[in-house]
Amino acid sequence: MDNKDVDAEIHPLKNDEKVLKNNETDTDIREGIKKHSWLSSCRTGAFFASLFLCLTVVFAFSFIIPCPLRPFSQRTWSTQYTRAMTYTFLAAEDVNQDKVKDVIFLFQVEDNSKLNVSCEDGGFQFPCTFITALSGTNGSALWTRPVAEHVQLVECGISNLGGTQVSGCIIIGNPDSLLAINTETGNIVWQKTSQFPPNGVARNPVITIEDVNGDGVKDLMFIFSVEDELQTVIISGKNGDRIGQNRSIGIAKKEGHYIHLTASGSQYVLLYAGGSVEGYSVRDLCSKIKGDENKPAQYRIDPDWEAQSNLSVGYISILPISSSGDVRFLMKVPGKYYDNILVVKSEVSELLDGQKFNSLWSVNTTNIVSKPALGYFKKDVLSIMMELGIRNGRKKVIIVDSNSGTVQWEVKMNLGITNPSPVTLNTGDHRSIFLFWGEHTLEFNNSMERKEILYMFHPSYPTVLLQLNNHTENIVLFDAFLFEKSRHACYVLLTGPKTTENFGTVSVSKRKLKEDITNSKVIWLSKEESNDNEIRDHFFRMRYTSHAKA
């Protein structure tokens, strides 16, 4: 007999208990299955509902809700004005907020019938000066406005003019007029007359200062040459009213001025002429203009600078170690902790410590022919490109290390016709391309016709120049920009008559660098074996960054 049967006979109730327990377990199981089935159905429904919702959103964004259209930007465009003249001024801003920079410049025309505005619209006699913004995408006029019969000073990119959130342009014109223009619309923010000294000549640049009159908007300081002296004038940035009285700050022989920000954030105005440089605290200038005995609290002075102040003359003497040559330019060179000052002279240039004024290095710059440009020859190490005139109508282009003053690269070439200043654009490898004009040839004599040819250089190929373009027109101004953030690297040419008294053809043109690189000529500065197409491909694939220029 089977042991299980024996066990059942001996314990007849045991199997019944097991059956009962099994029945209770089956019921629980069935209830658990039902519950599990209900939860699974809920999960499945939630999954398909989420999937449906996601597909609906994707469908809406893909087909129903239109995506913002990226503006189509022409690679090259040119806008011409016949029987016209222009000024040495050009600015690039995103005027119409399409994320592409636009071009702002000034011009006059002998016949304004082809324009949609006239001199009379601004209350000026004909001919007068117009300011216009050209679309960076195709060169069409976004707006045009008459601003003066003749322009003394113009500066754009000034923020918060009139208390608005957009940038604007300041224009000083003859006869006596001062305008603030909204660069987005071309409309006048405010307009004033009789704010400046009679027969005064305004000097660039405009100095943006902290709010002096307490209206919540930063104000503007101007420097004028008035007969045999210089005068400073403060204008309200909110409404254009003059603040306080004009103040004389020295004799009018000063060649120019430069704004320096010290390590402590203090503003100083540096005036230069001959071999001298004088520093004036913006705080002192503002307090004396307003006639306040107390110094304005919103302005600071720098202890290092004030320690070198000469109370008997009322300014800080900034004297480079080497005194040979006249000062041509003052430029900011960013340092590790604060900005240093590059003093560019006709014979020697020096980098001065921005706090102690001691010379960090000097380099021979005899007969400098253009304003230097800042860029990067080595990765993240700032360099300075300079152009020095040498004999027989030739020049030497050099790149100098800003840390040591050593020459990192140089090339000799013929001087061009107008010799525009070089410009730079930062590249994705933490270096820069350098763009400059001239004519690279090993032979030159005075009978040869001068040419204006644009060259590109990048430190990745130190023995290569790319010849991009050549021009026969008179170049008034040349610059390079990223028309779109981190892309669309272009250069802009403003050409026209040689003087502002002659009328001719004025042209503003934009050319994308990649277009010129494709058709460029590769120039080898030394004998090397390589394929020219590989060089062009390397430059064509180059990427650019939107780091602000120093």
Low-confidence stretches: 1-24
Task: Give the number of helices.
Answer: 6
CA-based gyration radius: 35 Å
Number of strands: 34
Question: What is the residue-mean pLDDT, rounded to a whole number?
Answer: 85
Distance between the termini: 105 Å
Helix content: 10-25%
Tell me the strand percentage band: 35-45%
The 3D shape can be described as globular
What structural class do you assign from the helix and strand content? alpha+beta
Please describe the biggest sheet, giving its number of strands, its sense, and whether it closes into a barrel.
Answer: 8 strands, antiparallel
Topology:
Layout: H1 3-10, H2 12-64, E1 76-86, E2 91-93, E3 102-109, E4 129-134, E5 141-148, E6 150-159, E7 167-174, E8 177-182, E9 188-192, E10 201-209, E11 219-226, E12 229-235, E13 242-251, E14 256-261, E15 267-273, E16 276-281, H3 282-290, H4 303-306, E17 309-310, E18 315-318, E19 327-334, E20 339-345, E21 348-352, E22 359-364, E23 373-378, E24 381-390, E25 394-401, E26 407-414, E27 423-426, E28 432-438, E29 452-457, E30 464-471, E31 475-484, E32 487-495, E33 504-512, H5 513-518, E34 521-524, H6 532-540
Helix pairs in contact: 1-2
Verbal overview:
With 550 residues, the protein is of the alpha+beta class. It has a domain at 367-550. Helix content is 16%, strand content 43%. A hairpin with a 6-residue loop joins β29 (452-457) and β30 (464-471). The protein is globular. Mean pLDDT is 85; it is low at 1-24.
